[in-house]
Design a protein that fits this description.
Blueprint (H helix, E strand, L loop, with lengths): L1 H4 L7 H23 L1 E4 L8 E4 H9 L7 H14 L23
Length: 105
């Protein structure tokens, strides 16, 4: 086994301290990341999913409304006309707020 040790050198104290500091930083970052994350397990045999706040924030940053403003206005008008009487006046006035969930059912 002398061939394995021929290229081996011991680390100096400074190199050893630097390496130990790097290891501690990696461990602390790993712990911190796991505290901010949740492991989600599926019912199947597939491995779970690690979901972090950063994932949610990045997804929300690119999330847009499913309806354009013109579609919103069109559906609002449709809903108002759906409940109107023959004289063109609505039987009951309905006002919608942006983001409010509504249904025609």
């Amino acid at each position: 086994m002398s061939s394995l040790q021929s290229g081996y050198e011991d680390l100096s104290l400074e190199q050893l301290d630097c390496l130990q500091q790097d290891i501690n930083n990696i461990k602390n970052n790993y712990r911190r990341a796991n505290e901010e994350c949740v492991r989600v397990h599926s019912g199947s045999n597939q491995p779970g999913l690690l979901l972090c706040w950063a994932h949610l924030n990045s997804a929300l940053a690119v999330t847009r409304p499913s309806l354009s403003k013109s579609d919103w206005n069109r559906y609002t008008k449709l809903y108002e006309n759906f409940g109107s009487s023959g004289d063109g006046k609505s039987q009951h006035s309905v006002t919608f707020k942006p983001g409010q969930r509504v249904t025609l059912a």
